[in-house]
């Protein structure tokens, strides 16, 4: 009887493990954007053009899923080359020493219809801090016209750049300390 019970538990664990599906970010339909207040009167917006990301989970229960993301910091793009080059220096991201920013999710909690709190660890300049994103589930598309299944999400949060040693203008007068991050994501089911 004990062997049957162990076999039953092992089978349930295997089914649960294999039920999770890997989804890869579709970079043609996704964006990693940021916005920071400038001089207290306006905002500078930017984005990162190169990144990799996965979601491992199912649309039936997103709370059991896991997000992992890696951003190439050298791909920062504010549409002003001189500013982008400055952002790559030690004043900001120091891309030579810290070429990537990463996010690893720790939990996803449902808060309403298609609304979630996505908690995880964000690493910038080799400093890791917990962050919480407001996550909106956009839905599941069974066929995008090319035989691909797609999932859609939007995630937003605000981080204090000083927490990650991005300390240029320590007064925060010219460049605000709070940076808004907005990530629009479309994932394709891995084949």
From TrEMBL:
* A Pfam family: YceI
Q: Which InterPro entries match?
A: Lipid/polyisoprenoid-bd_YceI, TTHA0802/YceI-like_sf
Q: Where is the signal peptide?
A: 1-19
The question of whether Signal is a record keyword is answered with yes
UniProt keywords (A-Z) are: Signal
Q: Is Signal set as a keyword in this record?
A: yes
**UniProt protein name:** Polyisoprenoid-binding protein YceI
Organism this protein belongs to: Myroides phaeus
């Amino acid at each position: 009887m004990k062997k049957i019970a162990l076999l039953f538990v092992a089978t349930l664990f295997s089914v649960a493990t294999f039920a999770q599906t890997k989804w890869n970010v579709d970079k043609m339909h996704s964006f990693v954007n940021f916005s920071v207040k400038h001089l207290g009167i306006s905002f500078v917006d930017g984005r990162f053009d190169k990144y990799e990301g996965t979601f491992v989970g199912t649309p039936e229960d997103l709370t059991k899923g896991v997000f992992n993301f890696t951003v190439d910091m050298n791909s920062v793009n504010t549409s002003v080359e001189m500013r982008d080059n400055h952002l790559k220096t030690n004043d900001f991201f120091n891309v030579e020493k810290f070429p990537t920013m990463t996010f690893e999710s720790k939990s996803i909690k449902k808060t309403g219809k298609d609304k979630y709190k996505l908690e995880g660890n964000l690493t910038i300049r080799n400093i890791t801090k917990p962050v919480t994103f407001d996550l909106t589930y956009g839905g599941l598309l069974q066929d995008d016209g090319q035989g691909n299944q797609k999932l859609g999400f939007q995630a937003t949060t605000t981080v204090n750049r000083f927490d990650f040693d991005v300390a240029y203008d320590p007064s925060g007068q010219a460049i605000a300390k709070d940076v808004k991050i907005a990530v629009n994501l479309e994932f394709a089911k891995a084949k």
